[in-house]
Amino acid sequence: TLVWHDWFSTSNDGVGQQSLMLEQNALFRRNAFGSFDQLAHDVTQNPAMIVWLNLNENTRWNPNENYARELMELFTLGADRGAYTEQDVRNLARALTGFDFEWSDELGMYDFRYVPARHDDGNKTIFGKTGAWTWEQGVGMCVRHPLHPSFFVNKLWSYFIPTPPSASDRQALEGLYAS
Questions:
Q1: Which of 57, 103, 110, 124 is most buried, by the most CB atoms less than 10 A from its CB?
Q2: What is the pLDDT of residues 63-85, one digit of tens each?
Q3: Ramachandran category for residue 49: left, alpha or beta (phi over 0 → left; psi -120 to 50 → alpha)
Q4: CA nearest neighbour of 89 among 73, 74, 101
């Protein structure tokens, strides 16, 4: 749970509603040993993450790149590895449009949901592939990217062992992860 909280880093300082942070912690506990693909999809629609990286401000009229950039750079692919371009970030941001929530003085932020009318349903080119990508497809493209397994293995390894894996260990773990 602590590894996933660090991996998908959020803070109540930015979220501002402890109940959302507790819900996110429960998500990490439930999925600690499950599919990373499923975890990435669940985190994307998680209320604390929606607030933390401004997904609710990411609309078809005004795309916000915060989550798209972090999804690629910190969560799935890594920076400066040649995995994505700035155009990929911009188009992934468009694929990730559509999230919103309600606010009340009594409840704070609530009713987090995906609103199709806020989504950019036009064609987008991500990793050289063009289509009218949805947020689910965009997240999946990052997790299925050829450079994701090496990023995943190295990052996860670093949480438990202070020295990088040998080339043979890394290759074996990448193969195991990708299978």
A1: 124
A2: 999 999 999 999 999 999 999 99
A3: alpha
A4: 73
Q: Are the beta carbons of 1 and 26 closer than 8 angstroms?
A: no
For Cα atoms 30, 89, 144, give the angle at the middle one, nearest 5 degrees: 50
pTM: 0.95
Task: Give 60's contacts (C-beta < 8 A, 6+ positions apart).
Answer: 94, 97, 98, 118, 119, 120, 121
What are φ and ψ of residue 164, in 5° steps? -60, 155
Note the helical H segments in the chain. 2-7, 12-15, 18-30, 36-44, 47-52, 66-70, 86-95, 135-143, 148-160, 167-178
Q: Write the single-letter amino acid at 48.
A: A
